[in-house]
Design a protein that fits this description.
Strand content: under 5%
Oligomer: single chain
Length: 91
């Protein structure tokens, strides 16, 4: 799973990187679109780049995939709720 996320983040990052140059080239070749219309690709590039960053971070944090590495036995709630401390075991 970690490798799949790595490749997906790479592809999404490249797609986000190439979105604006492709949009500019499309407006150059199109007779109906102006260069200003390429600005509509900015939100798409932003979303693709943010998703790529999230996927890369998740792939780095959990390279083995599921089950969650280092889960405490509470079904991964330590990863789902990172702001709360782990419960102490009473011996």
């Amino acid at each position: 799973m970690g490798r799949g996320r790595t490749w997906l983040s790479l592809l999404l990052g490249l797609a986000g990187l190439l979105t604006l140059p492709v949009a500019v080239e499309v407006t150059r070749r199109s007779g109906r679109l102006a260069l200003l219309d390429a600005g509509f690709a900015i939100p798409l590039a932003l979303v693709l780049s943010l998703v790529a960053l999230i996927m890369a971070r998740r792939a780095r944090e959990n390279p083995a995939g599921l089950p969650l590495a280092g889960a405490s036995g509470w079904h991964g709630t330590d990863t789902a709720l990172p702001t709360f401390p782990r419960p102490r075991r009473v011996v």
